[in-house]
Specification:
heterodimer; A: 347 residues; alpha/beta; D-Maltodextrin-Binding Protein, domain 2; 2 domains; ten-stranded mixed sheet; 14 strands; 42% helix; B: 446 residues; mainly alpha; MetI-like fold; 64% helix; flat
Chain lengths: 347, 446
């Protein structure tokens, strides 16, 4: 029966090739993680593939938490070698890693990313302070010794100098590392700056943790919209609603200056210079984590890491800075950490 | 017949329509109008979709190139002067970039083209960052050309390319931090001098993906290969398994509760959201069986699971459509049950099976969700090997590539994503047309 024979042999072939290939080693570096780090990682991977004899690393996105979870799944060829992350690894993640045998992790800080507030190029210009954002987006505000639902619906109700425009904010969803920075560097900061923090502590009897939590609770009445997708989705929302103000990464804004205008924060215009000097307040470090156990197993892993943070790439005149990464003034120290394979436990 | 028995003349006449008939006719007219309206809405939506995709994406198939002579200076490319490729490889693409900027500047001066308002740095930005890599690869492959002047055709930067396609205008360049109007005007002058031309771009279909800084160089080659490999895996696995299962269930299996339960489950599986198969694939094929991430074999296995119900349902329908008289005749002439199935029933059902398989494959080709979970949404620049080893190399896939490009920040990727959608639609159209043709040509009716 020719048909049956064909079937059986095809199945046998498939099964056989499966065993053959899983026996052979992996020769490319595998990276997964943050979608904020992704563009930088692809730029480096591409240049690495062009300039070295190693194959171009495979870079996946999926978010910092997903990347670190997969990184911590264990040691071996079908686990990832590097996790990109837009926040530092959490103690709970280090524990998970250790439980799965991933004990030696090298933390590499590649630079800083600015978080900017941008709106439609033809709309009003904004000059924000963190307090404005707190007063616009907090779920409840302290008024005369009691917490009341946030009544502000127009920016000029938040502060008289701001333009007469309805509040419509598009902020990153909670699965993004960016949201954490937004909550802490903008909302919490604004809560403290505006004096609301003290007022809340007076109401709740001095419980600081509860007050911080109350500060960072974002209103859910549709004035602020969580964007779980990428910045392209935020951009599409703003094109559809010209009154909207979105939260973007600096590099995304720099690629779309033809349609977006950026708001200042405390009077500072975000740029790689103002973020590097620390004047612009909303920025965060970007990282990648290397599985030290893979360093001498996967060809090209050490070279990729060295190349990533070399002055040619991550320095102030390299391609990453041109794309919007704020280069790290302490790059030399990071280079030493990677060269000497200093793991997190050693520090 | 008496007058008394004369039947009462009917109220309705064939010549004058009664109210009842009129009402019925009106209701039918209305129904036709509803149907027509429904079709119109559907067709309009389709036309809108196609127009938006084609208007955004058609330009992805054309690309702008700059052609200039480049002097490959020995001092820069081979400082040791011994033409040893291993030593020359130490000069990275960053070393090649200034060479191109210099070549462009010299050529423009030689041609008498004014570079008003364009700094050397701006000049470099007009050439794609892919170009240094292109020259470096050429030099390392032919070390003897160092010292000569070669005419190079290089990609223009994404914004310059956008200008010739109408995506970037002098107005938008005014506000754009990545390009200045002076650069666009220079590009215009270069085009008049014949240094810049826009033409069909094969690299979009054959080339690998590129990073966010080089939208002009991004191609679909690996994604198409990855999708192709996955389709091979699906075909090789899903067709025989699906057909064998259907033949057994339809022709041999006893009718009892067990087979009923299987039947219900197969129909249910066909309606399971495809992402569930991705979760299953991650758990079984990658975590348990230890197959590699981002590999077409895993994608193919997951899509096989997803396509199986479709193929089984289509195959069973076409087996059932073969009249029992064929089976009876074969059995009556002394054929065994198996001979009757394989010699008579299966060949007659083959066109239906093929159609079902092609439709299942087309569905699998356009599937994105399960691939997200098994690492196919990846930046891959290395072409996979030929099968079977290639099944285990990392690749991307067409629908995933579209998804990937829509997330990039450079607006030039919108064009690429739409272009990739066009390619995907062409493949789907081709496969579905095949299904129709096969059915028309081979289907038999009884």
């Amino acid at each position: 029966m020719s048909f049956a024979k064909l079937t059986v042999s095809a199945l046998a072939l498939a099964a056989m090739s499966a065993t053959v290939a899983s026996a052979q080693g992996r020769d490319n570096v595998q990276i997964a993680g943050s979608s904020t780090v992704l563009p930088y990682a692809t730029i480096v991977a591409e240049a690495f593939g062009e300039n070295f004899d190693f194959p171009t690393p495979v870079v996946e996105s999926g978010g910092s938490s997903t990347g670190l979870r997969r990184f911590c799944e264990g040691v071996g060829e079908n686990t990832t070698d590097i996790a990109n992350s837009s926040r530092s690894i959490r103690p709970s993640e280090i524990e998970t890693c250790a439980a799965n045998g991933v004990t030696d992790i090298i933390e590499v800080r590649i630079g800083y990313d600015g978080i900017v507030f941008a709106s439609d190029i033809n709309g009003n210009s904004f000059e924000f302070t963190p307090a404005d954002w707190y007063l616009a987006l907090a779920a409840e505000l302290p008024v005369d010794g009691a917490m009341v639902a946030n009544p502000n619906t127009n920016w000029n109700e938040v502060r008289a100098e701001l333009p007469d425009q309805d509040i419509a904010a598009f902020i990153p969803g909670t699965r993004h590392g960016t949201r954490e920075v937004f909550d802490e560097n903008v909302i919490l900061q604004g809560c403290e700056d505006s004096g609301a923090m003290e007022a809340i502590m007076e109401i709740n009897g001095g419980d600081e943790d509860a007050a911080e939590e109350a500060c960072m609770a974002i209103r859910g009445d549709g004035v602020s919209v969580d964007i779980d997708g990428d910045y392209t989705e935020t951009l599409a929302r703003i094109s559809a609603n010209p009154e909207g103000i979105g939260v973007f990464g600096l590099s995304f804004y720099q690629n779309n200056t033809a349609v977006l205008q950026v708001a200042t924060m405390n009077g500072i215009v975000p740029s790689t210079e103002s973020i590097a000097s620390g004047e612009y307040p909303v920025s965060r470090p970007l990282f990648f984590y290397i599985k030290a156990a893979h360093l001498d197993v996967i060809p090209g892993l050490q070279e990729y890491a060295d190349f990533f943070i070399s002055d040619d790439i991550a320095g102030p005149w390299g391609p990453l800075a041109a794309y919007g990464l704020v280069s790290d003034p302490e790059l030399a120290e990071t280079q030493r950490i990677v060269r000497e394979r200093v793991t997190m436990g050693d520090m | 017949m008496t007058d008394a028995s004369t039947p009462v003349p009917p109220k309705s006449s064939l010549y004058a329509t009664s109210d009842r008939v009129k009402r019925r006719n009106r209701s039918e007219t209305r129904f036709r109008a509803y149907g027509f309206a429904a079709i119109t809405v559907g067709v309009l939506a389709l036309i809108l979709l196609v127009i938006s995709i084609v208007s955004n994406g058609a330009s992805a198939f054309r690309q702008t190139y700059i052609t200039i002579p480049v002097e490959l200076t020995e001092a820069r490319l081979d400082p040791a002067g011994n033409r040893d490729p291993a030593e020359m490889a130490r000069v990275t693409t960053f070393g090649y970039a200034p060479l191109l900027a210099q070549a462009l500047q010299q050529h423009l001066q030689g041609q008498g083209i004014s570079m008003e308002g364009v700094t050397p740095r701006d000049l470099m930005a007009m050439i794609s960052q892919e170009a240094p890599a292109q020259v470096r690869a050429l030099v390392l492959a032919n070390p003897e050309i160092v010292g000569q002047t070669v005419t190079m055709e290089m990609l223009a930067g994404g914004r310059i390319d956008g200008y010739f396609k109408g995506r970037v205008t002098l107005e938008s360049a005014e506000r754009d931090s990545n390009v200045s109007p002076a650069q666009l005007l220079l590009a215009e002058r270069m085009a008049e001098a014949g240094l810049i031309e826009t033409r069909f771009n094969w690299a979009f279909i054959t080339g690998p993906d590129a990073s966010d800084q080089r939208p002009e160089a991004a191609g679909l080659g690996i994604a198409i290969l990855g999708s192709f490999y996955m389709m091979i895996v699906v075909l090789v696995l899903a067709l025989p398994i699906g057909v064998a299962a259907s033949i057994y269930l339809e022709e041999f299996a006893p009718q009892n509760r067990f087979t009923d339960a299987i039947e219900v489950n197969i129909s249910n599986l066909a309606a399971v959201p495809s992402i569930v198969f991705g979760i299953l694939g991650l758990a079984i094929f990658i975590n348990f069986a230890g197959l590699p991430q981002s590999a077409p074999i895993v994608g193919g296995l997951v899509l096989t699971l997803m396509t199986l119900p479709t193929i089984i349902i289509a195959t069973r329908a076409s087996l059932r459509a073969v009249p029992p008289s064929i089976r009876d005749a074969a059995l009556g002439l002394g054929a065994s049950k198996m001979q009757s199935v394989f010699h008579h029933v299966l060949p007659l059902a083959a066109p239906g099976i093929l159609t079902g398989t092609i439709i299942g494959l087309a569905q699998a080709l356009g599937e994105t969700a399960p691939l997200l979970l098994i690492g196919m949404v990846a930046f891959v620049r290395e072409f996979p090997d030929a099968p079977p080893e290639g099944f285990f190399d990392p690749t991307s896939a067409l629908p995933v590539q579209v998804y990937n490009w829509t997330q990039r920040s450079d607006p030039a990727f919108v064009e690429r994503a739409s272009g990739a959608t066009i390619v995907l639609l062409v493949f789907l159209l081709f496969m579905n047309a095949m299904a129709v043709i096969l059915r028309r040509r081979f289907e038999r009716r009884w």
